[in-house]
């Protein structure tokens, strides 16, 4: 499994030179000596033995507990126990397929966040995974660092994550169709801008640091000195704030940003 991070040309333009990367006091593998995942259990449902072993080994190193099942039926049985904090489910499984596993557990009231793995990368396939009840979708082959970062982001999500529409003040977001409106005016966003705005809308009034945004929106495992966040916030502001409208994204001096909802 490749451990190289995939990125868009848009993001690559803002990557810092290696001399500019600050040493955050982490060991060479980027893993803190104090694991924040000691009591977190991942249910992995994957029939490919090699992939399952690689994921399990990586998660163990990161401090997660892992339960691995190789079939959809066994995965569903484990999911219905409600013991997992987060799940990784392959879409194509022997017996009951991954999407059916997710649909059934949602019908049974199990709200455990699910990361769907699939070799299918078309938009329709991704939408099908989300409509079935998945919370995030990662295509194969993938970087192991990105899988871990996505799981960490799912574990940090608020309890209302299963909503397919977000409404925050004058903003409305359709998570399935990937569309955004402000007071009925549709706003065209690039994928990264959409993810950034979603992150802000889920945390209205909360001060969000640049480090938080880099880790959760860009899945960076280190914190570079870069204006990447500021550039994207600037672009997002120009799109969601039309002339005469109250600015929604506020800069918090020396800290980060905040989505302020008008009264």
CATH superfamily of the largest domain: Response regulator
Sheet having the most strands = 5 strands, parallel
Q: Helix count, per DSSP? A: 9
Global shape: globular
The CATH first-level class of the largest domain comes to Alpha Beta
CATH topology of the largest domain: Rossmann fold
- Widest sheet: strand ordering: 2-1-3-4-5
Work out the strand percent: 15-25%
Please state the oligomeric state of the protein chains shown: single chain
Q: Which CATH-level-2 architecture of the largest domain?
A: 3-Layer(aba) Sandwich
Weakly predicted, low-confidence segments: 1-34
**Count of beta strands:** 12
What string, H for helix and E for strand, traces the elements in order? HEHEHEHEHEHEEEEHEHHEE
Percent range of helical residues? 25-40%
Rg is 19 Å
Features:
9 helices; five-stranded parallel sheet; 263 residues; four-stranded antiparallel sheet; 33% helix; Arc Repressor Mutant, subunit A; 2 domains; alpha/beta
Written account of the structure:
Helix 3 runs parallel beside helix 4 and helix 7 crosses helix 9. The chain is globular. The protein has helices at residues 9-12, 49-61, 72-79, 98-107, 123-131, 144-156, 191-201, 210-216, 228-240; strands at 41-45, 65-69, 86-90, 114-118, 136-139, 165-168, 171-174, 179-182, 185-187, 208-209, 249-252, 256-259. It folds into 2 domains: 36-161, Response regulator (Rossmann fold), CATH 3.40.50.2300; 163-259, Arc Repressor Mutant, subunit A (Orthogonal Bundle), CATH 1.10.10.10. Strand 11 and strand 12 form a beta hairpin. The protein has 9 helices and 12 strands. The strands form 3 sheets. Strands 2-1-3-4-5 form a 5-stranded parallel β-sheet, sandwiched between helices. The protein has a 4-stranded antiparallel β-sheet with strand order 6-7-8-9, covered by helices on one side. The model is unreliable at 1-34 (pLDDT under 50). It is of the alpha/beta class. Helix content is 33%, strand content 19%.
């Amino acid at each position: 499994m490749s451990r190289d991070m995939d990125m868009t040309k848009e993001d690559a333009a803002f990557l810092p030179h290696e001399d500019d990367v600050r040493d955050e006091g982490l060991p060479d593998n980027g893993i803190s000596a104090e694991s924040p995942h000691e009591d977190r259990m991942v249910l992995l449902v994957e029939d490919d033995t090699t992939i399952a072993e690689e994921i399990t080994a990586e998660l163990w190193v990161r401090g997660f507990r892992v339960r691995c099942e190789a079939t959809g039926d066994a995965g569903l049985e484990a999911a219905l126990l409600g013991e997992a904090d987060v799940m990784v489910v392959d879409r194509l499984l022997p017996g009951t397929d991954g999407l059916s596993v997710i649909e059934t557990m949602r019908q049974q009231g199990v709200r455990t966040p699910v990361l769907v793995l699939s070799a299918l990368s078309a938009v329709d396939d991704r939408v099908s995974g989300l409509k079935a009840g998945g919370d995030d979708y990662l295509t194969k082959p993938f970087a192991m660092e990105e899988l871990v970062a996505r799981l960490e982001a799912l574990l940090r999500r608020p309890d209302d994550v299963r909503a397919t529409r977000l409404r925050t003040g004058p903003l409305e977001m359709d998570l399935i169709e990937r569309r955004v409106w402000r007071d009925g005016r549709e706003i065209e966003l690039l994928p990264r801008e959409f993810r950034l705005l979603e992150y802000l809308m889920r945390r209205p009034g909360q001060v969000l640091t640049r480090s938080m945004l880099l880790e959760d929106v860009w899945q960076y495992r280190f914190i570079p000195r870069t204006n990447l966040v500021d550039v994207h916030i600037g672009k997002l502001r120009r799109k969601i704030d039309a002339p005469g409208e109250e600015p929604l994204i506020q800069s918090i001096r020396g800290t980060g940003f905040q989505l302020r909802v008008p009264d």
